[in-house]
Amino acid sequence: MYGKGMRPLAIGTFFVLTGAFALVFFWVPADADQGFIQKIFYLHVPMAIVALGGFIAGGVMAICHLRTGNSKWDLRSYVSIHMALVLAVGALITGSIWARAAWGHWWVWDEPTLVSFLIVFLLYATYQPLRFAIEDPEKQARYASVFAITAGAFVPLNFLAVRMAQSLAHPRVLGATGGSMPSEMRITFYVSLIGMALLFITLWKYEMASKHTTAQLRNLRRRLLGDDSVAPTGRSAAPSTVLPARPKP
Amino acid sequence: MPALPLDEAGKYVAAAYLVFLALILIYVAIMAVKLGRIEKELVELNELADRAEESK
């Protein structure tokens, strides 16, 4: 089900990302102000944008879960937030490296862009413990969906608040004036962004396929050996992926 | 701050791209372990199905 189209998607992702990095190092001119260090921009910014997009996507999927009551939407939301957290860690680390090289500090506490992203990251870092704290799968899915929707709505509000705040050191990318990037930089940035979005989708599908296959195997074991053969999963932060049992032929 | 000399800037850029690569590789390694478990269970279930067919 989720494995469908995985191979072309994975190959496409690999080529787009490789192409993006080739453009970064062999085509795009060095930044007049920062020089070579600005190459981190093509990695750091797409990671941050896709991570925030993943959080919002998790919120949208959580809305679908509450509307339909179908647990597959809860699983999709969970995996989306899980993947976005991985990219957010990457954005924080690469941003910190860039800050050290450009400003001489690993972190600047009075910079709204940095602190707001950290707040969003820490907010979502409580998502997994929240799920783990609730044992009943139905209740867990419902509470997690409410959390995902609330936090997902907070992300664009947070983004707007940062745009309205006065920047101290962190630049505004693609601002109201359309940004001031030369066309080579802009093209490279968009290719990197598309590559990062494709990577997110590929890993999301990969994770979904893994969870779905695991659930199918549990179902198969139950059909072959009966209910007693399947060990209870116990408390888990991950949504229960129990498929409806098929009637025996 | 003035632009860093190329060799020093190169170290920071390499570190950032290696962090990205490491994140992806760690993720792929975790998925490989998961797929290994799935494959192991699939083999086990196939054996069970074969035995069930033989006993019929």
Keywords:
A: 249 residues; mainly alpha; 70% helix; B: 56 residues; 1 helix
What does this structure look like?
The complex is a heterodimer of chains A (249) and B (56). Chain A has 249 residues and is mainly α. Chain A has one domain. Chain A has helices at 6-26, 41-68, 71-103, 112-125, 127-133, 137-164, 183-225. In chain A, helix 2 (41-68) packs antiparallel against helix 3, helix 2 (41-68) crosses helix 6 (137-164) and helix 3 (71-103) packs antiparallel against helix 4. Chain A is globular and about 70 Å long. Chain B is mostly helical and 56 residues long. Chain B has a domain at 24-56. Chain B is built from one helix and no strands. Chain B has one helix at residues 6-55. Chain B is rod-shaped and about 75 Å long. Chain B starts with 5 loop residues before the first helix and ends with a helix. The model of chain B has no long low-confidence stretch (mean pLDDT 81). The A-B interface holds A 21, 33-37, 39-40, 43-44, 47, 86, 89-90, 93-94, 97-98, 100-104, 199, 203, 206-207, 210, 213-214, 217, 220-221, 224-225 and B 1, 3-4, 6, 8-10, 12-13, 15-17, 19-20, 23-24, 27, 31, 34-35, 38, 41-42, 45, 48-49, 52.
Describe the structure in brief:
The complex is a heterodimer of chains A (249) and B (56). With 249 residues, chain A is an all-alpha fold. Helices cover 70% and strands 0% of the residues of chain A.
